[in-house]
Amino acid sequence: MSETHATVTPGTPVFPPGRYGRRREPGRRRPLLLALTVAVLLGVLGLAAAKLYTQYGDPEYQGEMISYTGITDSRVVVDFRVTVPPGGSATCRLRARSHDGAQVGLVETTVTAGSGQRHVRARQEVPTSARPFIGEVLRCRPAG
């Protein structure tokens, strides 16, 4: 017996008999499982962000460029200021770049604040392999 408009409820699609197999019932939604999955995912991402922040984003160690002078074919002198915890030390990475943006010099230096001081002003020569155009402070991190 084939389906007719009298045997089918309005709005239900009509398919030829014997084709396309058996129609499945609409699936049951699981909002609790979705909410739990999202909560676990957010927790894992939060832990990863916290770990990366403590590893790379310590705000107590801030390097600030003051000036670069003494540019010759083989060096540049970088003046910079570092904020550290009171009486602490920091290792700063300084680099020199040529006019086309290529890195021509790189040096790491350690600076130490006096007792109770949070700011250290330092001057460091960066040896270069070609004539530099600029000297800059890349980053500062805890010494050690």
Describe the structure in brief.
With 144 residues, the protein is an alpha+beta fold.
| The first-level CATH class name of the domain at 62-142 | Mainly Beta
| Span between termini | 85 Å
The oligomeric state is single chain
The coarse overall form would be elongated
Low-confidence stretches: none
Strand content: 35-45%
Question: Which structural category fits the helices and strands?
Answer: alpha+beta
Q: What is the architecture of the domain at 62-142 at the second tier of CATH?
A: Sandwich
Element-by-element helix/strand order: HEEEEEE
CATH topology of the domain at 62-142: Immunoglobulin-like
Largest sheet: 3 strands, antiparallel
Kindly state the percentage of residues in helix.
10-25%
Count of strand segments: 6
Rounded average pLDDT: 86
Please tell me about this protein's structure:
By secondary structure, the protein is α+β, with helices and mostly antiparallel strands. It has a domain at 62-142: Immunoglobulin-like (Sandwich). It is 18% helix and 38% strand. The protein is built from one helix and six strands, in the order αββββββ. The chain has one helix spanning 31-56, and strands spanning 62-69, 75-83, 89-97, 103-112, 119-127, 134-142. The strands form two sheets. Strands 1-2-5 form a three-stranded antiparallel β-sheet, with no helix packed on it. Strands 4-3-6 form a three-stranded antiparallel β-sheet, with no helix packed on it. The protein is elongated. The mean pLDDT is 86. Keywords: Membrane, Transmembrane, Transmembrane helix. The chain crosses the membrane at residues 32-53. This is DUF4307 domain-containing protein. Residues 1-26 are annotated as: Disordered.
